[in-house]
């Protein structure tokens, strides 16, 4: 694996593959940006490899087909908004005979994007397993898979690397780490790849502007937070981090000296908690309705700080 923070998870999965004890359905769960899809694809390549069981050889015809995206025994569902017909197509594919070798693998890149009908169709597929067909599902936190889906899978949690580890990794990658690293680490979900990209694109001044507008919003003052989020969808994730940091400080779960810009004195932690729940619901809505006017949907959340 090219991502060292995935080595422990890969070691466990490689052992199961070599012992022929790999589950029929596997769910990889963790923060977004940790490389779960990368891991899923490598596991799939290993399962389909015609030369060895514990790790893909990257040389055989099967590995080359996987690499080129032309392997008929690999089904990859990466649509932004999968429909129930996509899951039905997956089910039909799962029941067909493998075109190359005996095993087949299906990957769903984000099961939180599935609506109720799609979840039910997937559950039916998992409940009627086909021999030598494996399913690898990816679940990005903070959203959770349906309990019925979880009950059909082996769940493997991908841990977020420690802050100190990420810092050392960045230094080895020749990234110039500065005094803002702790904050950037938080806003990048602890993902080494995202932190590296953040530094490469020099996004900190943009983040500072966003945090300032967040402070104005919490103080019930005129702000441009809705405009910023409307113009750049990724800023919606930043709002979630702001709310979580404010809540963590209010509960004593974070050190005020580390994140003083998120300390809130004129509202209750209950208000922040409710605002965070509003944010979670809004994120879910944006996944179900891509054309949603996010800026307008933010005002009920903002109103909590005006009461």
TrEMBL record:
Pfam families assigned: DNA_pol3_delta2
Tree of life domain: Bacteria
EC id: 2.7.7.7
Keyword annotations from UniProtKB, A to Z: DNA-directed DNA polymerase, Nucleotidyltransferase, Transferase
Keyword Aminoacyl-tRNA synthetase among record annotations: no
Alphabetized SUPFAM superfamilies for the sequence: P-loop containing nucleoside triphosphate hydrolases (SSF52540)
Catalysed reactions listed for this entry: DNA(n) + a 2'-deoxyribonucleoside 5'-triphosphate = DNA(n+1) + diphosphate
Protein name: DNA-directed DNA polymerase
Organism: Agarivorans aestuarii
Lineage of the species this protein comes from: Bacteria, Pseudomonadati, Pseudomonadota, Gammaproteobacteria, Alteromonadales
């Amino acid at each position: 694996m090219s991502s060292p923070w995935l080595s422990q998870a890969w070691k466990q999965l490689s052992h199961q593959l070599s012992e022929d004890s790999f589950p029929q359905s596997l769910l990889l769960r963790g923060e977004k940006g940790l490389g779960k899809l990368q891991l899923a694809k490598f596991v799939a390549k290993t399962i389909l490899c015609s030369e060895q069981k514990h790790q893909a050889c990257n040389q055989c015809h099967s590995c080359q087909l996987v690499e080129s995206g032309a392997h008929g025994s690999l089904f990859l569902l990466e649509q932004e908004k999968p429909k129930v017909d996509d899951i039905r197509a997956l089910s039909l594919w799962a029941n067909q005979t493998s075109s190359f070798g005996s095993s087949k693998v299906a990957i769903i890149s984000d099961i939180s994007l599935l609506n109720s009908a799609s979840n039910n169709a997937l559950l039916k597929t998992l409940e009627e397993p086909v021999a030598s067909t494996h399913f690898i599902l990816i679940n990005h936190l903070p959203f959770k898979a349906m309990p019925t889906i979880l009950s059909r899978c082996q769940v493997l949690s991908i841990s977020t690397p420690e802050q100190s580890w990420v810092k050392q990794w960045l230094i080895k990658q020749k990234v110039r780490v500065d005094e803002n690293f702790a904050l950037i680490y938080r806003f990048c979900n602890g993902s080494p790849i995202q932190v590296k990209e953040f530094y490469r694109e020099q996004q900190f001044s943009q983040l500072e502007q966003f945090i300032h507008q967040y402070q104005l919003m919490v103080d019930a003052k005129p702000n441009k937070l809705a405009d910023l989020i409307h113009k750049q969808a990724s800023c919606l994730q930043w709002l979630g981090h702001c709310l979580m940091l404010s809540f963590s400080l209010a509960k004593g779960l974070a050190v005020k000296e580390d994140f003083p810009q998120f300390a809130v004195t004129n509202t209750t932690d209950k208000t922040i908690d409710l605002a965070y729940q509003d944010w979670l619901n809004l994120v879910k809505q944006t996944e179900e309705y891509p054309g949603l006017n996010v800026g307008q949907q933010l005002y009920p959340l903002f109103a909590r700080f005006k009461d």
